Amino acid sequence: MPLDLIAGILATQSPFAAFVLILVFLRQRPALAARLSIGTITGAFICAVFLLIHHGHGAPAEVYTGRWLDSAGVVVPFGFYLDPVSLQMLLVVTTICLLVQIYSLGYMASDPGFCRYYALMSLFAWAMGSLSLSPTLLQLYIFWELVGLSSYLLIGFWFEKFSASQAGKKAFVMTRVGDVGFFIGLLLVLYGLGNLDFTTLNGPAAASRMGTTLLGVSGLLIFCGIIGKSAQFPLMTWLPDAMEGPTPVSALLHSATMVAAGVFLFARLFPFFSRCPWLMEICMTVGCISMLLAATMAMVSRDIKQIWAYSTISQLGLMIMGLAAGNLFAGLFHLTTHAGFKALLFLCSGVFIHAYGTNDAVDLGRRGCRRLKTPMICLVIGAAALAGLPPFSGFFSKESIMAALAGLQNPLWLAAALLGVFLTAYYAFRLIFLLLVPDRVEAAPLASADHAPHDGAAYRWMAWPLVVLAGVTGVLGFFHQPLAYFLTGGAMGSAADHGRWLPYVAMGLSAMGVLVSWLEFASPRAPRKGFAERLPSVADFFADRWGLDRLYRYLVDRFLDQGISLFCARTDQRVIDGGIDGMAAATVNTGRLVSLLHQGTIQYRLAAAFVAMVFLALYFFL
To answer: How many structural domains is the chain composed of?
Structure first.
């Protein structure tokens, strides 16, 4: 058996074994459950590094498949697809999973659901790793849904809280809406191409065999799944509510890996999508709208986790714009750097929440969260990377996307992306200054004695992953050329191709966003309100998520509750119940008629016999 295949099996199946063992045998042994889960994800990480190194020297993509189903001549394979795109995603998944699970030793130490938490973490790692290495669209769809199941279980981990259970259901339902489109698109691809292998889908013969129209329609339906999973417009409002889960869950699922599965699917099918120009325009439009809308929502929020959630939606939209611009490296590079610095931002926020028992950024600043030096410094590093400030990784990956957009004929996309750069820097450092420079209102007491800022071993378990992620965020950007060579053979594009002005404009807008946020929240005469917050109607509109949730509530009330549900209720009452009641009434009435023939009186029977005999005599003798 090849070493690549062995490594692929270990990287994907060992977390599943940990999930089963913890759930069946270790539910009452938290220490052993945590060691098993972290041990298996460490093994998966080592296997991912081995595969990346082995394929980092120009080795060709390898596909290992076996028969999973064989019916009426139709063979459904199951296996592994080892190429640069899948291996980079696998390394991102295993790295973030490992650091988050180590961090969780401190964050979840006193939680009664500790063993269940690590079992679900292992379930997610198995589903996401298997999704990354899927060789066919059907296999990817299966693990796509398992990732959705893991997300639902982890968002609603604290199910005793009504808000957490509601958030889990909202995420599950809204992502399923997109997945319905994904599944229909999958069936159209199977109908038109007769094959769901990625090598066939991305091959040059796919367009000629399917036709441009069928290819575009199926691609658009598959993109619906991307919209749902990556929380893009219009299915974007579930992600901020998903912050009801534990903060490590937010870092893992809803910023670093799970929501990035949609962007990964776009990259996985990049040649397939690229053959339909109008489909790429739709993807560009959706990504652009999502980026700008989410940025405006983050500008007026005070919930530290929701701000990063809005930021995730915005950055995923930027990744989709980079891919839709025709640059595979730009989208995947930003996916990789974003996974690092966004996990860093969430985990730093988790330390503050764990210490002070609140998500409110203003309240955290008043309580003195800046005294926690390690998470505060790491949070500033993550915010600088998010804002695109050099020399952090976000600067290099954003510049790749800007270069790709600058190469398009329509300058509107580049202008929108540059506006997004300014807004991102503004809301990121708005939060930083709220934490670093609090107002003079008296600080509230700590939530409980259990939430001490320096809680010994628990604090250290949470601090070390922050240091590692901060280091990765600081150096990863300098590896953009080796990553470009690994992913695309060197075809990455640069800002120099479109003029040397672009990096300076982007850096200037980022610096301007930081300056505006300093003037409004940290300067001696700061009003402590942003320019959008000083317009109450605008602030309320942004805080209301542009009315999207109210629109969905209206549609549910009108078309589901008062439409489909009412129609089904009336159908049940009038057709189903009415039909059964009518059959029952007919049976009763028939019985009453027949009962007249069984009155128990001899006269009626003799009369009937006499009449019958008369008719028979007349028939035979006349």
So the answer is: 2
- 589 in the same domain as 497: no
Q: Strand, coil or helix: what is 63?
A: strand
CA–CA distance from 163 to each of 241, 304, 618 (Å)?
9, 17, 88
Residue 423 has pLDDT above 90, yes or no: yes
Please name the residues in contact with 482: beta carbons below 8 A apart, sequence gap of 6 or more.
Answer: none
Residues 6+ apart with CB under 8 A from 338: 256, 260, 312, 315, 319, 394, 397
Indicate if 456 and 491 belong to the same structural domain: yes
From the DSSP assignment, how many helices (H) and strands (E) are in the chain? Answer: 28, 2
Of 527, 543, 559, the position where a domain reaches its end is 543
Dihedrals phi, psi of 159, to nearest 5 degrees: -65, -15
Radius of gyration of the chain (CA): 30
Q: Give the 3-state secondary structure of 352-407.
A: HHHHHCCCEHHHHHHCCHHHCHHHHHHHHHHHHHHHCCCCCHHHHHHHHHHHHHHC
From CA 225, how far away is CA 131, in angstroms rounded?
Answer: 14
Distance CA 129, CA 270 (A): 20
Residue ending a domain, choose from 518, 543, 568: 543
SS3 534: coil
Task: Please report whether residue 605 resides in a domain.
Answer: yes
251-261 tens-digit pLDDT: 887 666 788 89
Residue 180 lies in a domain: no
Q: What is the pLDDT of residue 293?
A: 94
Hey, CA dihedral for 425, 345, 177, 575, is it positive or negative?
negative
Domain region containing 385? 341-543
